[in-house]
TrEMBL record:
SMART domains: Flavin_Reduct. Belongs to the flavoredoxin family. The keyword Flavoprotein applies. Residues 8-162 form the Flavin reductase like domain. The keyword Ribonucleoprotein does not apply. This is Flavin reductase family protein. The lineage of its organism: Bacteria, Pseudomonadati, Bacteroidota, Bacteroidia, Bacteroidales.
Length: 187
């Protein structure tokens, strides 16, 4: 096996779109790849020093949408352009924005699924950013993406993942097995 030394190549990495309001109440979004499940009802996200970080210092509530193949271009755009320098950043995405019903944050309706969140804890806070642990208040899913059982149909969402090895996005594919079930074949 070839060794590449220490790299941040944990795969797959979700492409998370964080929605916040700035101090004037304008919606903002940023692309964050370094996040994941923390507990049954909590997530963790590594935050750098961004306009979104400033927004979270004002208001600890935000949304997290999962980027898709259909939202890829605008999702990448909100990750490379800062609201600090581009005031019309959100208009350029073309996304439809509504106010969340459960938290003080924007919901971008162009995404199939969104988490409504509230920060519980900031870890290692410094001038370069911090890690946030956030409680999931509610999960929203566009009804067009519900399966026959009434739950979100992840296969139909065309979710994308960040490939840190090649700095690219990969569309997630089809179901290949059943968790907490298929392994029983080896018992």
């Amino acid at each position: 096996m070839k060794s590449f030394g220490p790299k941040a190549w944990l795969l797959p990495q979700p492409v998370l779109i964080l929605g916040t309001y700035d101090k004037e109440g304008r919606p903002n979004a940023m692309n964050a790849a370094w996040g994941g499940q923390w507990d049954m009802h909590e997530i963790m996200i590594s935050m750098g020093n961004h306009a979104t970080t400033e927004n979270l210092d004002i208001n600890c509530e935000f949304t997290v949408a999962f980027a898709t193949a259909d939202t890829l271009v605008a999702s990448d755009y909100v990750g490379i352009v800062s609201a600090r320098n581009t005031p019309d950043k959100m208009e350029k995405t073309g996304w439809t924005v509504v106010k969340s019903e459960n938290v003080n944050a924007p919901v971008f309706t162009d995404f199939p699924m969104t988490l409504e969140c509230r920060i519980k804890q900031k870890i290692d806070e410094s001038e370069t950013g911090y890690f946030i642990i956030a409680e999931i208040i509610s999960v929203l899913c566009d009804e067009a993406f519900l399966a026959e059982d009434g739950k979100p149909d992840v296969e139909r969402m065309n979710l994308i993942t960040f490939d840190p090895v090649h700095n690219s996005y990969i569309q997630l594919g089809r179901k290949v097995g059943n968790a907490f079930s298929d392994g029983r074949k080896l018992k």
